[in-house]
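I hope you will forgive my troubling you with a question about protein structure. The full record is reproduced below for your convenience:

——
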Amino acid sequence: MTGRPIVVVVGSLHYDIMVDAPDRPRKGETVTGYAWRPKFGGKGGNQAVAAAKAGAKVRFAGAVGDDDFGRFLLAALEHGDVDVSKVARLADTGSGMSVAISDAGGDYGAVIVSGANLKVDPDAVARAEIWQGARVLILQNEMPEAINIAAARAARDAGAIVCVNAAPFRSMAQEFTALIDVLVVNAIEAEQLCGVKVADLATAALAAEALSKSFASVVVTAGGDGVVGLRRGEAVVSLPALPVKLISTHGAGDVFVGTLAAGLAADLPFAGSIDAANHAAARHVSTGPSQ
């Protein structure tokens, strides 16, 4: 392949307010934090920037509000070498945002307010100019399913691979699952989808096998244990987590998905794409989220 392969992301954009604290509060508890900072986020946005960093030419379709948060998000996408010409700017609508609390152990919890992400026009994501030359589409469950279906159909018509990060978990209509070429889930999402509890690479492989009955290619990330991939007709790919010092897990899954999609768009083998994504995620957790 010559030139940069084209990846389309139809997804969420959130202005993240990151809070560093010794622990995440329990119900009714107030915890005194150390610091806070704004950060570009949303699974769609993070995955788009990761795909561009991995070498893809990325087009983003979505929406922000006509507010300061929206202008911040668009600037961050452009800084990450992502084409924002197909991002709608919606008047009288707040941009998506979240508050994420990162604890002393490097883990986190978050609350999102979707805002403009819920008002993307399904017809807009199906416009032909978005799909010219596209090799891979990335979707996530932070967008309404009607948007995902419209985008997946357009991608299929254009001959692009449909890669879905089924996060956060929600039940998916058969109409949508039938359009998915590559499913990416973490341990919790895998269990919610197929009932197999993922506790290590062996059980991740069992979950991938169960999910492969419905999806042609499945990737199950198992946190500190590693990642398993299974494509019908091929051997299981099982990669242990790389030994790195954990700084923060926030955004690691998005880095994995974006890098995986970029590899698939560049015609890397399935196993090679997973390996590249595994390395990118390891680098991310060992350096922490960008400030």
About this structure: Residues 6-25+34-180+242-287 form a domain with the UDP-N-acetylmuramoyl-L-alanine:D-glutamate ligase fold (CATH 3.40.1190.20).
